[in-house]
Amino acid sequence: MTPSPDVSPRVLEHLETRVLEQLVSGASPAERTALGLGLTPLADGALMTLGRFGMVRDFNRTLGLGTSQPVTDGVLDQLQALGRAAGLGQVMVGVVPGAQGGLRERLLERGATPVRAWLQLWREAAAMEHAPSGLDIRALQDDETETFIDVVMRGFGMPPDLRPLGTAVIGQPDWRHYLAWDGPEPVASASLFLSGGYGWLGNAATLPQWRRRGAQLALIARRVTDAALAGAHTVFTQVAEELPEQPNPSEHNMRRAEFQTAYRREHLILPTAPP
């Protein structure tokens, strides 16, 4: 009998941090300086910062706090100081189930406010079929990097200054990238990162006029299958939690692909002003 994979916060938060480490290290020193891009170890977790775009919560947030040791007031003092040093007025703090040290309560005492939670979703890495989409799913070729970045940027509606975040992981070991094509037109993108038997899915962007045609389901199936062929046992990703007033098509796609919830990660916005 195959043992169940470890999809605990201790494991998945560490792997997600590795993804961000690769993103930060893949940017040039000049790009990191221009964007205020960094990933700083903090207790048993890390703080990612993108100081030039402080309003972008996805890139100004913590990971892994309280997964293996209690969070102290000293850790939160350090977190706020790091945020201020990066020019941020606030940071988004992830609170995983069982976070040690009463993290949520400590954050509330410092004036933090809850915002939309994220879900860590996972499924077994195995050959996966998908409904025909009429699109051609292909691994990225060496001469298609600019095409890939263009789809990512346009699909996510990212400003040109954030282009280094797209290029940073191209060509790095353990990364694979894909495009969905409608004839000669590239219409959707996706990436797969492999580490220690796990595969992480990201960079899932579709150009507006090609949405609702099954591109991302097809890209999910290709990456899950490729992860299994590469020896992975588990595939995971993060999605914003669907709310009645905020539906999330990304979660719908993952559920259709038989992903299940590993855990729910609460988020609280913490002012960086000292208490």
Quick overview:
The protein is of the alpha+beta class.
Report on this model:
- With 275 residues, the chain is α+β, with helices and mostly antiparallel strands.
- It has 2 domains: 9-118 and 264-271, no CATH class; 126-232, Aminopeptidase.
- 31% of the residues lie in helices and 31% in strands.
- The protein is built from 8 helices and 11 strands.
- It has helices at residues 9-26, 29-35, 73-85, 103-109, 145-156, 163-167, 215-229, 249-256, and strands spanning 37-42, 45-50, 61-63, 90-95, 113-124, 136-139, 175-182, 185-195, 198-206, 234-240, 260-271.
- An 8-stranded mixed β-sheet has the order 4-11-5-10-9-8-7-6, with helices on both faces. A 3-stranded antiparallel β-sheet has the order 1-2-3, with helices on both faces.
- The longest helix has 18 residues, at 9-26.
- The chain is globular and about 55 Å long.
- The termini are far apart.
